[in-house]
TrEMBL record, chain A:
Source organism of the structure: Cellulomonas chitinilytica
Pfam families: BPD_transp_2 (PF02653)
Annotated TM spans: 23-42, 54-75, 82-99, 105-127, 134-153, 173-196, 225-244, 256-276, 283-301, 307-327
Organism lineage string: Bacteria, Bacillati, Actinomycetota, Actinomycetes, Micrococcales
Membrane topology: Multi-pass membrane protein
Protein name: Autoinducer 2 import system permease protein LsrD
CDD domains, A to Z: TM_PBP1_transp_AraH_like
UniProtKB/TrEMBL annotation, chain B:
One Pfam entry name: ABC_tran
Bilayer topology term: Peripheral membrane protein
Keywords associated with the record: ATP-binding, Cell membrane, Membrane, Nucleotide-binding, Repeat, Sugar transport, Translocase, Transport
SMART domains noted in UniProt: AAA (SM00382)
Protein's UniProt name: Ribose import ATP-binding protein RbsA 1
Claim: Repeat is one of the keywords in the record: yes
Domain of life from the UniProt record: Bacteria
Domain ABC transporter: residue ranges: 66-302, 311-556
An MF annotation (GO) of this entry: ATP binding
Source species: Cellulomonas chitinilytica
Length: 346, 561
């Protein structure tokens, strides 16, 4: 092989090389985009750079952030959970119905989380044991969970939750626009981030998403992993349901209808490949914030919601398609760097 | 008996050591010692294409169908093809050989319009061939049969043949009948029995390749390039493919054939072009050369011992399998292997050999029987359990089972060790790099760095990554399925040396191989399977090609030792 760059003993890339790769990577690009949107909006949109704006922005994206954490792992493992918003609704309804019947709010919330785990386990069972594709399974449970939610409360709404709990959910750190609940998110995000990026389980998530068979040959219990990812997704969705109930003071069967698509969109904007195996948690968090900030800025600028949806859709397509186009444009010039043995297996 | 890949042709045994029984003795004059007697220079009367020789149509031979002159392909700083030369005449099967990374595949991709050359010239029937896309190349008359064809699974064979130019009948509607008839004719002329109406889904790889060839014939391709077509075929299928290739040659087509199997190259080709490091080394008549010469030209040195074997005294039985049965796949399989011993498993494709090791390793379940490691029963609880007991399996299908082609070298190597490398549940890249570096150094993996994506390495280097991935677990039993499939001759010898060294270190090795010389050359004992049953267990001294082949084909059933 006539390749001057190929060393006989490949070494770990230098810290500088690795840093360069991170800085040229997708996470860096999406972060730069977020910074740009925030800067431009701060300069051009009145009231954007205020604590109030950020306060509501965080409260609005909080459920998406919560659900995006397990969704990121699922999509990287080449699975998907579309039942999350329905589980959120079911959880909300359970909290409302139980509270209405005199259960303490904390116990009602705990029951909702357990039901979330059970619902997630149902998804996991159908996918890993029965062997159905997760897309089909979770479209089914999307209807199932929503049906249960609406069946329990009908078109009623339960309101009148204790103000202490509601105040806690909407409290913010003194002097800032940052809601207290964001602290919970930071803890959870760190936990999911560590699992995905710095544990054996995380390595298996990527390996399973790229090639489940090879992952199995390498001793990975792919089925078990997938099952628990669905359970985590159910629990986080239920937690988002508890939040939703208290944040809006209303438990309804149709809470958060369609939110699953916002979550999946944010995960894709955040750089996760829908085909699995690629992506990172920081990118997804930035992706959620990017969409939230953009929509918030456009709303403040009095742009109609139809236009906002169009802009969000274009952003999704651009961020998903963009990297591919860039890679193609760089084309042959870049290929040698990543393909030292272009002649393989010749 | 059909000639299949077990057949040892001239020179195949060239590099086996002198104490080798069997193959060497039946093929004299091909040992490494004889090599210096052969002219070392690639040029000779039979080599019209020396590096310095000007190319062009000769007055005596027919004008070449394909002429490649000084072809260069750079990928940025990487030179994949430095100066390729190739001349293929009509009515000729021309073998293209070289180690992995020699540039064969790059040359094929240039011919096929997948890449465009940096410099140089390609002429097809005297006219410049400058395909910008695979479609251009096809229209110009170049057809490429890849190792794994990509047919449309839901379309019929006939529709696949005529894809992109469906035949129409009355009213401009697609005429299935016309396509069916035409395909039937084409299949018949090639002597191939495939139903034109059946869907492509479920066709064997061999049949899919034949459909691709029919497609090429229907397009009146002038040049047919077959890029390692036999790597995934069984013996009978190889014979059928060769029969079709010969027919095409006799009808005047120019055929380029790429293979790592010398028996096939010598059985099929008229001339051989050797490439090394992206450059043309030599072109010679097949009849006027031998394997040793070709190998030396490929690697640029003599490969002295293809099958190194140190004398060893096997220790205690480490792995013992009794009465292993999986309905319809294998039945009553008994085997054992001792520490420091290499047990070779021979058998035709489909004999159940891979399935047995898969079951032992816990990938598939078995219905009855026991697997013992060090006398203790190994429960059926998946590969993780097997790994805990010191087993490792290097699987047969590298790209699907052995490797994560989209992950980096480091991540691949460390995947099997991910739990052992973690401290307090945390796994750092640093730990992965350390272990990957150590094993990449031991096995001399060639890659840009440890972040290089495994799928971009050459076949031999990919196999080294798979080996590193499993050897890093320090197994006591190494199950290895087709250790050298699709890798170049230099790496092959390295893998063999490695297996010998592992056995010397006391590892119990179970090696499955379709290449008989490999089984005979490397094993202390040879176990032969036929239709899911063990038909022979032979000591090294008793294992000769005839005995193994007859046991593998079920013609003789010798006593199980």
């Amino acid at each position: 092989m006539t390749v001057d760059q190929v060393r006989t003993v490949p070494a770990a890339p230098s810290t500088r090389t690795r840093l360069t790769r991170v800085l040229l990577g997708r996470d860096a690009a999406i972060t730069a985009l977020l910074v740009a949107v925030v800067l431009v909006a701060s300069l051009t949109v009145d009231n954007f750079s205020t604590a109030t704006t950020w306060y509501f922005l965080f409260l609005d994206v909080f459920p998406i952030l919560l659900i995006a954490l397990p969704m990121t792992l699922l999509v990287i493992a080449a699975q998907i959970d579309l039942s999350v918003a329905s589980m959120l609704g079911l959880s909300s309804v359970l909290v409302g119905a139980l509270y209405e019947n005199g259960w303490p709010l904390a116990v009602a919330a705990l029951v909702a989380l357990v039901v979330g785990a059970v619902g997630g386990a149902l998804n996991g069972f159908l996918v890993t044991v029965v062997g159905l594709p997760s897309l089909a399974v979770t479209i089914g449970t999307l209807a199932l969970f929503r049906g249960l939610a609406v069946g329990i409360l009908g078109t009623r709404a339960v309101t009148g939750f204790p103000s202490g709990a509601q105040d806690l959910v909407s409290a913010h750190f003194a002097g800032t626009g940052i809601p207290v609940v964001m602290a919970l998110f930071v803890v959870l995000a760190l936990a999911f981030g560590v699992v995905l990026h710095a544990t054996p389980t995380g390595r298996l998530v990527y390996a399973a998403g790229l090639n489940a068979e090879a992952a199995r040959f390498a001793g990975g219990r792919v089925g078990r992993l997938t099952f628990w990812l669905f359970v985590a997704s159910g629990v986080m969705s239920a937690l988002a349901g508890v939040y939703w109930t208290l944040r809006y003071g209303s438990a309804r069967g149709d809470n958060a209808v369609g939110l699953e698509l916002s979550v999946v969109a944010a995960v894709l904007v955040g750089g996760v490949s829908i085909f699995g195996g690629r992506g990172a948690l920081p990118g997804v968090v930035v992706g959620v914030l990017l969409i939230g900030a953009l929509r918030s800025a456009l709303r403040l600028a009095d742009v109609s919601s139809d236009v906002i949806n169009v802009v969000t859709g274009v952003l999704l397509i651009a961020t998903v398609v963009g990297p591919g186009l860039v890679a193609r444009a760089r084309g042959a010039a870049r290929r040698p760097g990543t393909r030292p043995s272009a002649g393989a297996p010749g | 008996m059909v000639v299949n890949r077990f057949t040892i042709l001239k020179g195949e045994a060239m590099a086996e050591s002198d104490d080798e029984p069997g193959p060497t003795s039946s093929h004299p004059g091909a040992s490494a010692d004889a090599a210096p007697a052969t002219p070392a220079a690639p040029l000779g009367p039979a080599a019209p294409l020396g590096p310095a020789a000007p190319l062009g149509p000769s007055t005596r031979t027919p004008a070449p169908t394909l002429v490649v002159r000084g072809l260069v392909k750079h990928f940025g700083p990487v030179v994949a093809l430095a100066r390729a030369e190739l001349e293929v005449r009509p009515g000729e099967i021309h073998a293209l050989v070289g180690e992995n990374g020699a540039g064969k595949s790059t040359l094929v991709k240039l011919l096929a319009g997948v890449y465009q050359p940096t410099a140089g010239q390609m002429l097809l029937d005297g006219a410049p061939l400058e395909p910008r896309t695979p479609a251009d190349a096809r229209d110009a008359g170049v057809a490429v049969i890849y190792q794994e064809p990509t047919l449309f699974p839901d379309l019929s064979v006939a529709e696949n043949v005529f894809m992109g130019r469906l035949l129409t009948g009355r009213g401009g509607l697609v005429s299935r009948k016309a396509m069916r008839e035409r395909t039937r004719e084409l299949l018949a002329t090639l002597g191939v029995e495939i139903d034109p109406d059946r869907p492509a889904l479920g066709l064997s790889i061999a049949d899919q390749q034949l459909v691709e060839i029919v497609k090429a014939v229907s397009l009146d391709a002038k040049l047919l390039v077959m890029d390692e077509p036999t790597a995934a075929l069984s013996g009978v299928e190889v014979d059928r493919l060769f029969a079709v290739a010969r027919q095409l040659r006799d009808r005047g087509a120019a055929v380029v054939f790429i293979s790592h199997r010398f028996d096939e190259i010598f059985a099929l080709s008229d001339r051989i072009t050797v490439m090394r490091d992206g450059e043309h080394v030599s072109t010679q008549d097949t009849a006027a050369t031998d394997t040793a010469t070709i190998v030396r030209q490929m690697v640029g040195r003599a490969v002295d011992t293809m099958f190194p074997r140190t004398e060893r005294t096997p220790g205690a039985v480490v792995l013992e399998v009794q009465g292993l049965t999986r309905a319809g796949t294998f039945e009553g399989v008994d085997l054992h292997v001792r520490a420091g011993e290499i047990l070779g498993i021979a058998g035709l494709v489909g004999s159940g050999r891979s399935e047995v090791v898969r079951a032992v390793f816990g990938i598939d379940r078995y219905d009855s029987g026991t697997v013992r490691v060090d006398g203790r029963v190994l429960a059926q609880d998946g590969p993780e359990q097997a790994m805990r007991h010191g087993l490792a399996l290097v699987p047969e299908d590298r790209r699907r089972q052995g490797l994560h082609t989209d992950l980096s070298v480091a991540r691949n190597v460390a995947l099997t060790l991910r739990r052992r490398l973690s401290r307090g549940g945390i796994l750092t890249s640093g730990a992965e790099y350390r272990v990957a570096h150590e094993w990449a150094a031991t096995l001399q993996v060639k890659a840009r760095d440890l972040d290089a994506v495994a799928g971009t390495l050459s076949g031999g280097n990919q196999q080294k990554v798979v080996l590193a991935k499993w050897l890093s677990t320090t197994p006591r039993v190494l199950l290895i399925d087709e250790p050298t499939r699709g890798i170049d001759v230099g790496t092959k010898a390295e893998v063999h040396r490695l297996l010998d060294r592992l056995a010397g270190d006391g590892v119990a090795v179970v090696m499955i191989s379709s290449e008989l010389p490999e089984v005979l050359g490397m094993s202390d004992r040879v176990l032969v399977m036929h239709e899911g049953r063990v038909t022979a267990v032979l000591d090294r001294a008793d294992a000769d090609p005839e005995t193994v082949m007859s046991a593998a084909t079920g013609t003789v059933r010798s006593a199980v030792a």
